[in-house]
Design brief:
Oligomer: heterodimer
Distance between the termini of chain A: 29 Å
Radius of gyration of chain A: 22 Å
Distance between the termini of chain B: 40 Å
Strand order of the largest sheet of chain B: 5-6-7-3-8-9
Keywords (chain A): Membrane, Transmembrane, Transmembrane helix
Protein name (chain A): ABC transporter permease
Order of helices and strands of chain B: EEEHEHEHHHEHEHEEHEHEEHEH
Pfam family, one (chain A): ABC2_membrane_2
Structural class of chain A: mainly alpha
Largest sheet of chain B: 6 strands, mixed
Number of strands of chain A: 0
Structural class of chain B: alpha/beta
Shape of chain A: globular
GO molecular function, one term (chain A): ABC-type transporter activity
GO cellular component, one term (chain A): plasma membrane
Strand content of chain B: 25-35%
Number of domains of chain A: 1
Number of strands of chain B: 13
Helix content of chain A: over 70%
Strand content of chain A: under 5%
């Protein structure tokens, strides 16, 4: 390197992050999205409680059912989160960088003694902070509702699983925040970046589950005389569908909130011999099960953030 | 006097277009230096290069003896910048905007609020400081930008088009503030495309054209070098050929007839008595005479016209 910069890239990081978080907390846009999330969450959990109390049965993990039980016509709390968390993240991030250009504050802020690194990282951390607070509030709300209405305190294991679920949701939302951040550095107009991010979100939420079997079918045609090709097809389809963060999040919540889940892939009957079907796994084993999914999501988050970083560092900041 | 800003052979290319094409600039401590020129002549790019906000293609920059690329934080801590069409966070009040800057500067809470109070007082935004910036007029935003420079207690203030889009009164207010800062020892670099207005505040100016500095120096020197005079006398007279009458007069550097009975006389001092005497001696009737200082606009037009003629001839 010809140029060696002096001074820490973290100067001003906390200031930017806290200011961003404070801005989000007071912005009408975020208030609306949060209100939507809160209402649907409370609705879903309330419906789940109704369902649970009607179908009383022996259940070791009654508390976790709060998250996963769906009652027609409402989907479960987990399904709602999988759908709405990306929206929250997109609302937080889609104008984070291009908004500074449009307000013409970019050159003024960068003429203060901070590096660009601090601005970008600070904005990302500020968004993550808001997501973390929002998720924690939701989680406590659901837990509180459960204790009040069902009258059952959660067991230690259920709390552990709940916390792991909280972490998974946090990383999932972080990925979508990073997607929004990338588009906000690539496009100068907030409307364009919002639309681009929403397009990606629609693609993965609605179209990816339809596309994955089609692509897999084209890649691995099933030979009726060779049963292994059918297995290959399923494996390929699974791999393709796992490109979508929504699939990864779905698998993580499945393993964490349904302790009976033993595998997230296909299982042959010979692998199940002498297994106690329906017997729950301990928390540590469930965590082992979702480890690859969690690692993949964190990796995706870092790759996306790096992309935003590179594109931002190369930008001309005039205007 | 010591040099606080120095650039040598500064070049910035965007693709094949050179926005800045070999700029050599020196600014001394305590002076008001004007970067003048039309839009797109490379003033803003030069400013961004000075602040290290963009990397030069070639050449060197030294600000307060530091390299803004190598040591950007130290430079940005000591240099205040007010961008063209300055923007603030509209949903925050003026004071909150300044507080954010103060935090980025790493000031403690008590020190920050003391400096903000002083700065708001100075730019007369004490009451408006509690209002949202979205309610501010253009002139108030510019003054808030100046308050930000004050909070930094900058040694150098770089102001990009500080008066553009302001009404005459706000312009005068802002220029007065700038002059006051200069008297307190702050070095000020300002850019503008309104030459005549800035002429009144600048000690030295550099005239930009197509990425180069065409001329630089003190305003009086430029006018006498290019136009040969610092004063322009307009003479209305009948029955006389002024060019002939003033042929060997002292201090007269040029006589041009603008229409019958009206001449423009360039002089390097107030030559009105001499002109009047010679008109009367030549038997003419003097009907009106007015004098004014030569403006930078005239220098600019004349110089770059010649520049273009040379370019066309070559």
């Amino acid at each position: 390197m010809r140029q060696q910069r002096e001074g820490s890239p973290f100067t001003g990081l906390a200031t930017v992050a806290l200011k961003e978080a404070a801005d989000h907390m007071t912005s009408a846009r975020i208030h609306l999205v949060m209100l939507l999330v809160l209402l649907t969450a409370v609705g879903a959990v309330y419906a789940a409680i109704g369902q649970i109390t009607e179908t009383v049965s022996q259940d070791q993990f009654l508390f976790l059912r709060l998250f996963t039980t769906a009652r027609e016509p409402l989907p479960s709390f987990v399904a709602f989160l999988g759908f709405l968390l990306p929206l929250v993240a997109i609302a937080l991030g889609f104008d984070s960088i291009n908004g500074e250009y449009n307000r013409r504050t970019m050159s003024r802020i960068l003429s203060q003694p901070i590096y660009r690194d601090a601005l970008l990282t600070g904005k990302f951390l500020g968004g993550l902070l808001v997501i973390a607070i929002c998720l924690l509030v939701l989680w406590l709300l659901v837990t509180g509702l459960g204790i009040l209405l069902v009258g059952l305190p959660p067991s230690g294991e259920e709390v552990l699983r709940g916390l792991a679920f909280l972490l998974a949701s946090f990383v999932y939302a972080g990925v979508w925040l990073a997607v929004a951040l990338v588009f906000s550095t690539l496009f100068r107009s907030p409307a364009t970046s919002a639309l681009a991010t929403l397009t990606v979100w629609l693609l993965f939420t609605i179209f990816w589950p339809m596309l994955a079997p089609l692509i897999a079918g084209a890649l691995v045609p099933v030979d009726p005389l060779n049963p292994m090709t059918a297995v290959d097809l399923v494996e390929v389809e699974r791999a393709i569908s796992r490109i979508s963060p929504n699939t990864l999040f779905g698998e993580m919540t499945l393993a964490l909130l349904n302790p009976e889940t033993r595998s997230l892939g296909i299982v042959f009957s010979n692998q199940l011999s002498r297994a106690l079907i329906g017997a729950p796994l301990p928390v540590s084993q469930s965590l082992m099960l979702i480890w690859p999914q969690l690692a993949a999501m964190i990796a995706a988050l870092l790759v996306l953030f790096t992309a935003a970083y590179v594109s931002f560092q190369r930008q001309e900041i005039r205007a | 006097m010591s040099t606080v800003i120095e650039t040598k052979g500064l070049v910035k290319r965007y693709g094949r277009i050179a926005a800045v094409d070999g700029v050599d600039l020196t600014v001394e401590k305590g002076e008001v230096f004007g970067l003048l020129g039309p839009n797109g002549s490379g003033k803003t790019t030069t400013i961004l290069l000075l602040l290290g906000l963009t990397e030069p293609t070639a050449g060197t920059v030294r600000v307060l003896g530091l390299d803004p690329l190598r040591n950007p934080l130290a430079v940005k801590r000591r240099v205040g910048y007010m961008p063209d069409q300055i923007g603030f966070y509209d949903n925050l009040t003026g004071r909150e905007n300044l507080l954010y800057t103060a935090r980025l500067l790493g000031l403690s809470g008590a020190e920050a609020s003391k400096r903000i109070d002083e700065a708001l007082e100075r730019v007369r935004l004490v009451e408006a400081g509690e209002r949202r910036v979205s309610t501010y007029s253009r002139g108030m935003r510019q003054r808030l930008g100046l308050a930000e420079v004050l909070i930094k207690q900058a040694e150098i203030a770089i102001l990009d088009e500080p008066t553009s889009g302001l009404d005459p009164q706000s312009t005068q207010e802002l220029l007065d503030l700038i002059l006051a800062l200069s008297r307190e020892g702050m070095t000020i670099v300002l850019s503008s495309h309104l030459l005549a207005m800035v002429q009144s505040v600048c000690d030295r100016v550099a005239l930009f054209s197509r990425g180069r500095i065409g001329l630089s120096g003190r305003v009086e020197d430029l006018t006498s070098d290019v136009l040969g005079g610092t004063h322009v006398v307009e003479v209305e007279a009948q029955d006389v050929d002024l060019a002939q009458a003033l042929a060997d007069a002292p201090h007269i550097t040029g006589v041009t007839q603008q229409r019958p009975g009206l001449w423009r006389v360039d002089a390097d001092e107030d030559a009105r008595p001499e002109i009047a005497r010679r008109v009367v001696m030549a038997g003419g009737r003097l009907t009106a005479m007015s004098i004014r200082h030569t403006t930078l606009d005239e220098v600019y037009v004349r110089f770059f016209e010649e520049d273009r003629h040379h370019a066309a001839a070559a």
